[in-house]
Amino acid sequence: MKILLAPVFVAVILGCNSRPKEPQTLTTDSLSATVSTQASDTAAIIQHIKEVYTNINKEQLTQKSFEWEADTTCEAPPMGGTLTYFYRGNELVKMWNAGGEDHGSWKEEYYFDEDQLVFIYQNNTYGGAANPDEVSYQNRYYFYNNQLIKKIEGESGAQLSTSSVHDLSKTIYRLKQAGNSAAISRILSCNTEE
To answer: Please, are residues 55 and 71 in contact by the beta-carbon 8 Å criterion?
Structure first.
C-alpha cells in the first residue's frame, strides 16, 4: 500500500507545479465569455492566469516608465500618457498604460507569462467635453497561446469583437518591443512604428 501511495503523491506534486494542459479547441463568440472547450481545461487555465496576476502584483518589480505625447507626424488627436514596464529580473511581466485625450482616459494593465500575453485589464472612462454622458467600463480578456479564451466586458462600455481584441493584443506586443517614448507615441497615436 505504501509503495502505491508514493508514485501517486509524486504525480500530484508534479501536476500542481506544471502549467495547465493545452485544450483541444479554443473558440469564443464575439459578445460573451463563452468558451467551447472542456470546462475543466479552461478553468485550470483561467486559474493559472489569476495566480500569475496575483504573484506579479505581490512582487517587488523593477520599473521603467516612458512619458509620451501624440506624434505630430500623423493626424492624431491631442493625447498623452505614461507606459510603465515591470520586470522580474530581465523578464517583462507587466505593462501599465495610463493616459488621456480630450474625451476620455484609460488605465490598462497587460500581464505576461513566459513571454506571452495572458491577461488584459481595462479601466477606462469616456465622456467629458466631447460627450457629456460619461461612460466608464472595466473589461477583462484572458489569453492562452495568443488566443482569446475568455472575455468579461462591462455592460455600459466598449464591447470588443474578437478581432478587435486580437488587434489590441498585437498593439500590446508592439508596445512590448517599443522601448522608448517616440516609438510608444507612434504606436499609440499613429498606429505605426515608423
So the answer is: no
Beta-ladder partners of 152 = 140
Residues 6+ apart with CB under 8 A from 14: none
Which runs of E-coded beta strand occur in 21-134? Answer: 62-69, 79-88, 91-101, 104-113, 116-126
Indicate the domain borders of the chain: 27-190
Q: What is the pLDDT of residues 88-100, one digit of tens each?
A: 999 999 999 999 8
Task: Tell which residue, 178, 181, 189, has the closest CA to residue 72.
Answer: 189
pTM: 0.77
Give the separation between CA 184 and CA 69, rounded to whole angstroms.
Answer: 9
- Distance, in Å, from the CA atom of 106 to the CA atom of 98, rounded to the nearest integer, reads 6
